[in-house]
Fold this sequence. Notes:
This protein has 524 residues and is α+β, with helices and mostly antiparallel strands. It has a domain at 277-458: Up-down Bundle (Butyryl-CoA Dehydrogenase, subunit A, domain 3). The chain is 44% helix and 13% strand. The protein has a 6-stranded mixed sheet with strand order 2-1-10-11-7-6, with no helix packed on it. Strands 5-8-9-12 form a 4-stranded mixed sheet. Strand 6 and strand 7 (178-189) form a beta hairpin. Helix 4 packs antiparallel against helix 8, helix 7 (274-310) packs parallel to helix 9 and helix 8 (319-344) packs antiparallel against helix 9. The longest helix is centred in the middle third of the chain and has 37 residues, at 274-310. The structure holds flavin-adenine dinucleotide (FAD). Flavin-adenine dinucleotide binds next to strand 5, strand 7 and helix 13.
Amino acid sequence: MFMTAADYRDSLRQYSPRVYCEGELVESVADEARFMPGIDAVGVTYDYALEADYHPLMVAEQHTTGKDVNRMLHICRTPQDLINKLEAVRLMCREVGCAQRYLTHDALNAIFQATYRMDEDKGTDYHQRFLNYLHKVQDEDLTLGVAMTDGKGDRSLRPHKQINVDSYVHVKERREDGIVLRGAKAIITGAPYMHEYLVMPCRNMIEADKDFAICCAVPIDADGITIVSRPAGRPGEADAKFSAKYGQTTGVAIFDDVFVPWDRVFMDGEWEHSQFLISTYATHHRHSCIGARAGFGDLLIGAGVLMSETNGLSVEDTPHLRDGMVDLIKIVEGFYACGVAASVYGFADPAGSFQPDGVFANVGKLMLATQIYDMHRIAHEVSGGLIVALPGPDEDHNPETAGDLAAMLQTRPDIPHQRRADVARLMEDLTASKAGTWMSVISLHGGGSPAAMKREIYRYYPIEERKELVEKLLDRGVVAEDGKRVSKQPGRCCPVGCQVPETPQLDYQPDDTPKLGKLDPAAE
Ligand SMILES: Cc1cc2nc3c(=O)[nH]c(=O)nc-3n(C[C@H](O)[C@H](O)[C@H](O)COP(=O)(O)OP(=O)(O)OC[C@H]3O[C@@H](n4cnc5c(N)ncnc54)[C@H](O)[C@@H]3O)c2cc1C
């Protein structure tokens, strides 16, 4: 089943979560104006899947069922899948800023891999449980929030050492029919308007943290969950040219003794696999973040050119403005290229899925995390100060000032003042409003702080191979002791003897040999 955006919004009425926003209890999430920009942004992920032109990017066949599913719910099998997902995310985010639902994709792919790995290692049956759940999510076309980041308490202490054990979500009780969860997940994108949450550990664990190594699925209106959220974007603000229409919220989810039946539990105490789950999720997610921020970059590039033009300047004929735009393009396409490389150089997981390359995914995310500030700076540089200094929209209708403002602030005779004001307000919204600075912080911290990416880059990077490369060079005398370059082995300039490394092929065919020997197909 594929829902439309309208169906998705209506489907939220089947849930009755306990949600607070700005100190008030929300009666109906589907009708709450403060969440509408977020609901509409997720809605685009539904409507685009129904558009014929976007079908190749937005729809994919799930290999375990043969059914077509939304790309945001699909398990990637090939480099082409990764590229299509990357492009799909960019396509949606250039329309809505942040489409949010790609987090669902990233978590589903990571849990697919981690459950298979745990079963192999421990003889558990998590993978089949997860497949049953995955197929339900795909059949019902759901959107799942990622409840990974815990409250975390004192950052210098492990979960089991925290003074308040509830600063991390943990298993309070194990019963015959399931587990009982308690604690806080601190940052969940789209928290009030998801259908369910995927609860995952947020750090690697040691044995003493066993009760915190938990992965499961819970409906957002499960008994005992309270969501404390904030408005999505800037709903109702007249000068919010972008974020009154599309936005994103986050919420804290308080788990106050929430029961989860076993068929929804995908990890319970397997602390040794916590790091694999986190790292795999982070790689998929950082790959998606690259597509998302490239979409935002497309918006900035367009707004920068329009702002210059409404100022009366041609970007093409004004060298420093053209340079500014090229710098912006270089940043956006630079990190996007890392996303493409991560897809092409990805690798097949034993579970039968395909994962982006860890170095390229993390380098791309690290680039956008820090260069988002340069993106904003360049946009400000080419735009001028009007973007924050223009009188507010109420002044547009003030009979005492509106006429003079329109006449005296006009630039080119063929561009009405109102048009320039609209572009300036859009640029302010994207870069200098609270929605704009939100975009900086989500770029910097969403998917992990820069320190986490640097750790991953170092972990994935073949440092030893680079060291051996140099050792081989020294041994064969290419670098002589006196510093002169003397090759004693003509024709052998690299460890593989001048062979051109194989180019990864995009027509990679997944191995369809059934590997899931333990699984019972009848259960699907
Ligand atoms: C807009 C937005 C949306 C998000 N959406 C989601 C979501 O949907 N789901 C989800 O699970 N998470 C989400 N996140 C959370 C995101 O993954 C975290 O913000 C990120 O992992 C950083 O964690 P933190 O915010 O708790 O910062 P902190 O952990 O407090 O980090 C602050 C600084 O302290 C450093 N630090 C932290 N701990 C240590 C330590 N032990 N030793 C040394 N240095 C340390 C960090 O490197 C960083 O520099 C979102 C974040 C944002 C901003």
